[in-house]
Amino acid sequence: MRPYTRLTLKQRYYIYLWHSEQKLGYREIALRLGRAHMTIYNELKNNRRRPDLPIDKSPYDPEYADWAAAERRSEKIRGRLLVDGRVLAKVKKAIEERHWSIPMIAHGMSRTPCEATLYKYQRLGITALAGYQKQKRRKPAVSIAKMMAGNRQLEVVKEHSIEKRPNEINIRRRHGHWEMDCIDSPKGIASSLLVFVERKSRYTEIIKITSKRSDQMLKGIKQFLTLQEGNVKSITTDRGHEFTNFDVVSYLTSQGIDIYYAHAYSPSEKGTIERINRDIRRYCPKKASLAPLTPAFLQQVKEAINDYPREVLHWASANRAFTRWQRKRPSMTKIGVQYVERA
Question: Mind telling me which Pfam families this protein's record contains (predicted)?
């Protein structure tokens, strides 16, 4: 296949002379120029001011044809705009006034180009996107103190890894095994919600704490164990510093409660509580502070969530499943730190 070379202005003058004045056919002109006859046909048909009109009404002009060909090549290099000015004005308004990102504009506005096209227009310097700056999110560097704290906690996490959790807990065969997590306020506000979910019945307890310091965590855990006295055999949680500190681990161990830590970046290993947290967020949105929440309000939230009919419980509520277990289980009494059945 021979390489293609563009028609020059001189060759276009020859085409005009031979076709318009000497009335030669396409094939004869093509033979004289060493071109394909379709090249001559397309040049005379399309490279005119009005290609929609017959050639006698809109004659071929070699100078205009050469300019039009150069303009088409320039459009290919800089990228042809496929949208009108009104759409670009809408895009500009969304960027400057509403602070929308390009993905938000592409998916959230009608009759706008796709994401890739908008990024292309930005690279080409289109005015509507000249003020757009892609947000860069960078994780702050981890401090040495935090790294050392992680190393100290590593042994505790290994000792209580979820890999050591018995299979009967994994398959939810028995009641009394819970998951624990924290729901935090927006950045700068210390108040949090300490959430506990019983794995088999999905029964939920919500306790407000003023911060995630060890003393407040212990206070919340003690309140939970008072509410569920004799009903807690193990707790599964994540590797957050509030759960791996020595005070929390030693207290739970002293109460005869096993604690298990999920693997890092594995929320599915405590998926029950992650699902319940979504339900709680319906009443406590992410951007809202948790500090003003009263115990009465949290009690209402707990009752509402525990009354949800759940498909996993065959459309029974967690409250009903938990109450049924309480009625069936033998009465318990506390001796030291162990719970044993009464004689």
Answer: HTH_38, rve
Q: What pLDDT score was predicted for residue 324?
A: 92
> Global pTM?
0.54
Most confident of 115-124, 210-219, 326-335: 210-219
Full residue range of the structural domain in which residue 205 is found: 144-341
Q: Domain check: are 73 and 101 in the same one? A: no
Backbone angle region of 230, left / alpha / beta, with phi > 0 → left and psi within -120 to 50 → alpha: left
pLDDT at 341: 38
Alpha helix positions (H), the chain: 9-16, 26-33, 37-46, 62-78, 85-96, 102-108, 115-124, 144-159, 167-170, 214-227, 241-244, 246-254, 271-281, 295-306, 318-328
Q: Residue 216 CB: number of other CB atoms within 10 A?
A: 18
Instruction: Tell whether 57 and 91 lie within a shared domain.
Output: no
Domains in the chain: how many in total?
3
Is-contact 226 251, C-beta < 8 A? no
One domain, residues 29 and 104: no
Same domain, 168 and 263: yes
User: Is the model more confident about 333 or about 70?
Assistant: 70
229 belongs to a structural domain:
yes
For residues 303 and 214, membership in a common domain is answered with: yes
User: Is the pLDDT confidence value at 197 over 60?
Assistant: yes
Q: Considering the domain boundaries, does residue 1 fall inside one?
A: no
Digit-coded pLDDT (tens) for 24-60: 999 999 999 989 989 999 899 888 888 888 888 888 9
Task: Tell me whether residue 203 is in a domain.
Answer: yes
